[in-house]
Q: What sequence folds into this?
């Protein structure tokens, strides 16, 4: 299954250090199928022009290509609004500025968790410096959110920001429950879905969150583009974030009026080629049955995890039925960087370090982990390569 | 799909043209079909919103027949209004409500009218239908 | 000259409405040479990975590719700091947040001009709403900045923001003089160089400005990426803008510390493929003699402008020796959109509208203009095509 | 370029290896060449800044000869420190100042050490030279 899919991805015909590439750094970024690369090449070779407000043919084609991305996003995720950003990080910063700054008062409570990626911590810390909101962090116990502590933390909360699926552990949080708990205290909910949208289908309206942030590059799309989905209620409460061309209706020396749709939040020349590429990725993904891949990959990850434990490593990932196929582990004596470099010498790409989640590392009591993360084009052969690669590392370091 | 004969004629006329320049010339010729809304009757209530250039459309129902008056600063927008006038004027509200704007695509009128402008056509079309619905409901 | 260069650009082998493409919308965005398109394709096909903090081979290659862009920017523009953004607009918003918000007090004066692009107006209007600074607009007379009025406006100014070269008129402002006048009152200077860097070589340190903002897509590079060059003094005064991964040193629940170099202002996964593409564009551009192209294109634009005046059109561009080759014009009776659409029917791409500069339009007393903007791959044949295309329009509308 | 024989030997040793895994194994073997800086002497002043993993280097000049002690949590970083020890230890400050870090590239030691790590090598190299300069100037 995975193997035939690899044929769609040019990168899998390359070798690394004389070995076929075994790419297990998918939580950092995913590879791109030919159709995505080709769509961008075609855009630049045939239709490149600046979008909106123009009457010539290329500009029309460019506008259609770019806006197709928004249309596909709205369709796939069942959302009325899809603001296009440069990625998850900018999407969350947009929410903090465009919504947070105008709807939170000093002393208002924002609930976060210890499992958050830095992108869902730092923007709120910076907002707290600007307008003195209170940040409460829900603790993580044994890799899982402490739901009782969440219940307590929700008291008086105006906004709840939670990572849907952890990039470190693969933990898929009970977001349905978290949303309903949050809604019952009247809080708005932001989900960091960077690791969620690659792995499961999300119906934004049905889910009932107010903001959903994610990046194209983690779902087979290009770098430099992402989105913030926004509920109607939250959209009505948002004010512009960045100013410039395309987001205005009128500009005078005395002041400006803004667009009323998503363009209000997309200042300047948009990410046109990126939009075209992401649209191609979304179309390609629409043919993929994420559910069956999830099942397949989780089984692979579980097998890897149990073999690693047998070999004496500590595995931090939970790998429960809905968790993502991410195996985070450490070896009692081998430094993660040495480990990863010796795997790389065998063509195997894994990631090491704090994974932009230092508070979680602190909680796990480690400086960093080695992380192997699987995606739809991975298969048993990748797991086997990883396991025998690890054996060679263990032998060499024995 | 079959269209009322007045519309079918427009479709046929456009489909005969290969050259985009000529197609636009023909489109502009339809501007003459517009019953012009005089400048001093332009108002916020007949302004077409979301159109890039200035455009106004006023919808009247007299003796159970729909009549529009319109104006625009760009001649091609007037041309679109002319085509809409042919499609709409003198028809019953029920007929107008059942029209779809697809004929413009079928005719190739919208070929190479960029999204913003073809949306302009759609916007004007929708505006007419909404006004008619408001009147008769 | 231009013609042989066109061979480097795949888009020039396409037809529009049955005619060879005549692309004269370069001030909106420029076309991309094959080497730029290929560099991105190659990146996605061979080296795609997330950058920084990783030890595997692909990640190393991706990091090198991305950082090469920064290195080339610093070299080309002689700057100590090049913060990578998504474009000019984000660069100016970055300056407004990261510098403006932390270095301006209520009542402080920021000087702008009536010639600014919306991207250099709206961010400052939004800042004025946040911290009550005073905005002063230097008037434009006959298409040129009123330098006496600037002198007066500078009194007490803390920051001066000027468009280096106007996207509407091609006017190249006397930025050297403006900088020295501004510096003499102790003001920092931001230049909107979106239209400048494509047309002339800039030595940032020699020029002496504090901020220089521009976009890759206007200088043969990809969409979705741009830069803010910053002087050492201004850099030291800047605080982080967006928060997230890559811009931090440490994150704890209590607070975070930040990187000290440009990464401090680049939160989240950067525009990796875009950086690779821009690096290729910068290398390609390094072989181009902008001065001789400028002379050549200006002569073409001057010829076009005088022919248009003969035919009864009003030309707003000044086309003085250092101005960019931009011809903005209107016809006494033909609506700009009709005009542009009839040109497009002949394969000729020009832009119409307010060009994201409504205050300037107001000053010129028009709703919009038709703009033909020339770039290094354009040549006499494009000008001839435009002129005969215009003749056909005039005939048809007579 | 010619190198001191101790360095030339390292270059030769690495250049013989084709396999990246073996190259890294050899690199780690050089960790044994480090005169280890004990944990309780780790301090801010001997911390290598800008290195991803924890690394410390202390530079001493005794009887006009340079000696370094070092430690790192990752074994490959220790290996790099071992190589630096061979290049530096027992040489005069003047010799050390004139060294360039290029030999690491020539040896292919840095092949597939990603920029962050090869920068780590450079950072450690620069730190040693700067300390030596501070001492003798
Ligand atoms: C003078 C000027 N400033 C700013 C911009 C904004 O650039 P971007 O849309 O790439 O952010 C442009 C281009 O549209 C411009 O011409
Ligand atoms: C859970 C999570 N949140 C946020 C991000 C940030 O995404 P980006 O770097 O694309 O902005 C990532 C990816 O690094 C992530 O895994």
A:
């Amino acid at each position: 299954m995975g193997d035939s899919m690899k044929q769609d991805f040019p990168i899998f015909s390359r070798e690394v250090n004389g070995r076929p590439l075994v790419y297990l750094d998918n939580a950092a970024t995913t590879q791109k199928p030919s159709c995505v690369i080709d769509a961008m090449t075609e855009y630049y070779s045939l239709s490149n022009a600046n979008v909106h407000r123009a009457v010539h043919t290329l500009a029309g084609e460019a506008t259609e290509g770019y806006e197709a991305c928004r249309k596909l996003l709205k369709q796939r995720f069942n959302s009325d609004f899809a603001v296009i950003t440069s990625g998850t990080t900018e999407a969350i910063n947009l929410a903090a500025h465009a919504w947070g700054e105008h709807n939170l008062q000093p002393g208002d409570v924002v609930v976060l968790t210890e499992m958050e990626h830095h992108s869902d911590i730092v923007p709120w810390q910076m907002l707290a410096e600007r307008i003195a909101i209170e940040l409460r962090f829900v603790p993580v116990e044994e890799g899982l959110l402490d739901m009782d502590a969440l219940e307590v933390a929700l008291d008086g909360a105006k906004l709840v920001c939670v990572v849907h699926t952890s990039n470190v552990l693969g933990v898929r949080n009970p977001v349905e429950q978290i949303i309903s708990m949050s809604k019952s205290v009247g809080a708005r909910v932001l989900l960091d879905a960077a690791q969620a949208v690659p792995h499961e289908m999300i119906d934004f309206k049905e889910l009932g969150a107010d903001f959903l942030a994610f990046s194209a590059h983690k779902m087979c799309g290009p770098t430099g583009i992402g989105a913030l989905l926004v509920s109607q209620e939250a959209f009505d409460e948002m004010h512009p974030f960045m100013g410039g061309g395309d987001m205005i209706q009128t500009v005078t020396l005395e002041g400006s009026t803004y667009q009323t749709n998503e363009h209000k939040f997309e200042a300047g020349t948009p990410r046109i080629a990126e939009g075209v590429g992401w649209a191609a990725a979304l179309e390609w993904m629409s043919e993929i049955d994420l559910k069956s891949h999830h099942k397949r990959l989780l089984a692979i990850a579980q097998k890897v995890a149990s073999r690693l434990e047998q070999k004496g490593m500590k595995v931090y990932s939970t790998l429960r039925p809905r968790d993502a196929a991410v195996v985070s582990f450490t070896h009692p004596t081998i430094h993660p960087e040495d480990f990863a470099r010796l795997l790389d010498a065998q063509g195997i790409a894994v990631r090491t370090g704090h994974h932009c989640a230092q508070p979680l590392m602190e909680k796990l009591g480690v400086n960093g982990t080695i992380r192997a993360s699987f995606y739809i084009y991975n298969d048993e052969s990748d797991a086997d390569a990883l396991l025998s690669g690890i054996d060679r590392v263990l032998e060499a370091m024995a | 799909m079959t269209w009322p004969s007045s519309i079918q004629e427009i479709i046929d006329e456009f489909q005969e043209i290969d050259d985009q320049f000529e197609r636009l010339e023909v489109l502009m010729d339809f501007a003459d079909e517009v019953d012009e809304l005089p400048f001093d009757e332009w108002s916020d209530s007949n302004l077409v919103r979301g159109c890039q250039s200035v455009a106004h459309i006023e919808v009247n129902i007299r003796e159970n027949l729909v009549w529009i008056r319109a104006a625009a600063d760009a001649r091609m927008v007037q041309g679109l209004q002319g085509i809409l006038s042919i499609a709409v004027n003198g028809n019953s509200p029920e007929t107008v409500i059942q029209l779809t704007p697809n004929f413009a695509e079928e005719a190739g009128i919208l070929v190479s009218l960029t999204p913003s402008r073809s949306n302009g056509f759609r916007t004007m079309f929708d505006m007419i239908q909404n006004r008619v619905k408001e009147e008769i409901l």
Summary: Residues A 27, 87-89, 117, 119, 163, 167, 192, 194-195, 215, 226, 356; C 245, 268-269 surround pyridoxal-5'-phosphate (ligand 2) (CB under 6 Å).
